[in-house]
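step: validate -> pass
step: tokenize input -> pass
step: predict -> running
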Amino acid sequence: MKLTVHVIAALVLAASTAAWAQDRAAQPASERRGGERPADAAQRPSRPARSDPMLESFYAPEVVMRRREDIGLKDDQQAALKAEMDKTMPQFQQLQERLQGEMEKLTPLIKADHVDEQAVLAQSDKVTGLENEIKRLRLVMLIKVKNILTADQQAKLREPAKQEAPKAATTGLRSDRGTR
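step: predict -> pass
step: emit ->
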């Protein structure tokens, strides 16, 4: 039962971590380049796509747990991952609740017919501050997960999972490639 709760918590954290790491890549080019128009972007020489070091360098806890047999995760490593999840999830949930509250305060300020610039900026600072705390907490968790793993285990996690695709399709989970 406790392991199920931890796996669910890991899924929530990992999904938000993957979304965080992919935010930039998912934005339309016009938004990524400071709001320039597509016509402006077409006139500039294109750059080759860069890989995302966050996606390539870290492993979501639920991926590690799902592939624990494939990578040879030891009992002490599994216990360390569980301890990190136990420590991190309450902090993450608290920050998410605070962020939701601050966003609710920001919404009416920006929807007003006349926007109070100073009030919006002050509230926006609170929101972005909480978002940064959440990102930092996610990054700390990913660092700790990676540091629990051996180099060989990390190499195995970089390899495609065996027999994972059918399981992912039936459970609605993405393969581990997109969650790192």
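step: describe -> The first helix runs from residue 2 to 26.
step: cleanup -> pass
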